[in-house]
User: Fold this.
Amino acid sequence: MLERTAGSKILISAVLAAGLVVFPLSTKAQQSSRSPSQSGQSAVKGKTASSPGTGDQTLKASKPPTEAQLAARERRVKCGAEWREAKEKGAVEEGATWPKYWSACNKRIKDYHA
Assistant:
């Protein structure tokens, strides 16, 4: 009875794994097989029509980054350079990971500039 249970668990796991692999592929194939008029989307990705009837295409305008976003990027670059340097020197603590290092470094730099 125990072997039958283990075998059925393996079978169920295999069927679920196959379904997870096949399902995303089948939906992707359905989306790509539709023509732009069927899907209701423009033919060019990343672009939108400027007016409904003309078919004229324009790029979406992106907003410039905010001051806070620019500051966060700058801190990330500084902390990344510190992390790489510390790893090369072997000064990174045992079990330290980039997310933990980034969190501490980001807080340290924020506190220093505040």
